[in-house]
Predict the 3D structure of the following.
Amino acid sequence: MNYLKQLILSCATVVVMGCETVAPWDREVLARPEMQLSTDPMGDALFEQVYLSKEASAGGYKTAGGGCGCN
Amino acid sequence: MGCPCELRFYGKKEKEIENAFRQCVARAKEFEHKYSRYLDDSVTTSINRSAGKSRTTIDQETFALLDYAQVCFELSNGFFDITSGTLRQCWNSQTTELPSQIQIENCRSRIGWEKVTYSETEIFLPVKGMELDFGGIVKEYAADALVASAQKNGVEFGLINLGGDIAMVGPQADGSPWNIGIVHPTIKGATIAKIELSSGALTTSGGYERFIEIDGQRYSHLLNPKTGFPTDSMLSATVIADQAVVAGSITSIALLNNEKEGLRWLEDSKLPYLAITKNLDCLGTLARTD
Amino acid sequence: MKKIDPLLALTTAALSLPVFAGNPPTEKEISLRASSYKEDDISKTSVLSGSPERYKIDKTHFRLLTPIGSNWSTEINTSQEVMSGASPWGTFSGSDEQPSLIMSGATIKDKRTEVGVSITNYQDNASYGVTLGTSHEDDYKSRSIGLSAGWDLNNMSTLGIGFSFSDDDIEPTDAKKFGRIQQAKKQTRSFSVSWTQIINANSLLFSGLTYTNKEGFLSDPYKLRDTRPDKKSEWAASLKYRIFIDSKNAALHLNYRLYNDGFGINSHTVNAEWHQNISLRWKISPRIRYYSQSQADFYLDADDFSLPKTVNQSSDHRLSGYGAITAGIQANYELSGWKIKVGFDRYISDNHYGHDSSRYSHPALLDFNLTSLGIEYKF
């Protein structure tokens, strides 16, 4: 089992629930649902389609996808 | 939980370990947010705030923890009581003289798990000023939850140590068991025993890490809800069980009783244990491992 | 002590704590969203003929997200829309040069059904996805495919690329009766590249660039006179900023988009959302959006029937220069796996709001309300 020691790539020790903040710990806020790029995919889809059909602009962050008779 | 915690994970894939680690940290933080008495928006705080006033809605997890507390209360004949935290208003590190009987009775009037009503969706603390403290359960439960999360995320080797409650994810990276030192109750920095463990969980309860000193007399920080006084128990109890939450309640209840009752309780549990008596004798199935 | 086995009792009690209760695949997600879109009526003085009553769309959207093993996931989206109302046929110059509308007379009723299926594969540092989609209306059919890939570069940033292709058939209703084009095609190719960067423990920034190329019949077949180029390229660049504010227990979202296309339209979109945690269960998110576009090169305030049909012209309000403001709020309630979302948004548009508006405010510029109710369950 000694070869395993050479394969050890990561070992992390931190103070979790106390005072100090370290890198992986920092991601906790970024992992919150309200910090995601899209917090509500279905809501986004709804607004995208409404704006796509009622205004001239589209795109910016993802591809156009499928077509719709609405525009 | 407010204690130093340690997560040790070993594996072959850095990404996997990192991901597991991140999830565990987030999960631990989640538990703290949810059950800490010190946070304004925790479930515990919202339940305590409504004491004597209104019912509080709870989720499934909280309900399960309350049920678990109920079993502990019954098994310990009322010694293990998650409402006994208010006694700390009489006994804390700032206490310099013995509290009066009136003060103690005043605290005790706000204690009593049997007065609490709860259902799957709601809880009600009937007396104003009554307080729940999940501290005696959640830290151990969190250790179990983190082990489950780490194992689910592919970690084979490692351990989780939440302030002395140690739960095994697996053995050391070379397959050998972990060596866990049990702290000496009176000599600072020394260990009194070493225990080898590669699965399950180990918890230690002791009145020695924190104590209250009044007129040269040391009192345990563990308080007996029935008398309102600190317990006169053994110095420490260590137990190995499959789940940290089970080991934790066994050791807590052992320390809430007097030494004699506590030893009998440990013996009855049929789990491997180590008890350190007031005379510094090491007793129990784990005592011979040095 | 009671005469029961304490270990057995405690272990039994512990086993009903959620962690030990089996291995729940918490990843599956099923969601349903119903929404109602309703445009305000047009002021009667701006309508020369037809109905002042405008569009109303009721949409039902179903989504299912399922992990398959530990490396794959599928997402299925189906939605149905029922549209009714009148739409503008043309724009005329009134006596005071103010443009007036000819609206379709009877209420149009149509139905759109959309289905999309995605499969995503997750690797240690990458993910790859394929999406197939169809959209079906009586007068419009679309089939599309999308490919996407993302790479986690150094734990601090993510690179994403995407491509999509859509093949659409247009078959206007009552084509013979009104002399509309009977059949037409349209193809859309779209490319995207994006970069997400973690700035610090509380904030991150996304930047994206998309290029879309449309070819085929790009005009509005229902307008009396509407001739647009048969090719259009669109560029859009976007920034998304997310920051968590500890003292408020809330997240602020700021988005900006710059858009420019071959019709000569450029636009700015800015929106801000405030995601406030009220309690563990309640979240409230007020939001505001500002949009402004310039007019298309061939936009006319009123249709010009003296021009040959081959010359580009359109009086579509969507090609005019104007600005718009949306303000809304969404409330989320969460309870053991269930999530309920209620949202309301109000959109108002006017050529005074724009950065580069047309000379006249188009009488068909919209105001609408959008209300939605969603329920989601994770299991």
Chain B touches chain A at residues 1-14, 17-18, 21-22, 25-26, 28-29, 32, 157, 162, 173-176 (CB under 8 Å). Residues 3 and 163 of chain B are 5 Å apart (CA to CA).
